[in-house]
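Appendix B. One record, verbatim.
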Amino acid sequence: MRDDVIPQILDILSNTQTPLTTSSIRMLISNRFDKNLSWNTVRKYLNELVKSNQISSISLPHSKIKDKTGLVLYILKK
């Protein structure tokens, strides 16, 4: 599955200038490539791509809880 999903994630991120959430990426993969993936699966591959330095993650502060991380956004590295 890795060989199918990672190129799809990279394709989605290469076609946007806006950082995307895990949920947004999962929804786009489901719509564009007719694959129904779980949120955890997409997050796992996103983390692999961050570790391999292909994409960047942007952690936003939590909207209600001080000093806690909220949403994480992903964007392709340039």
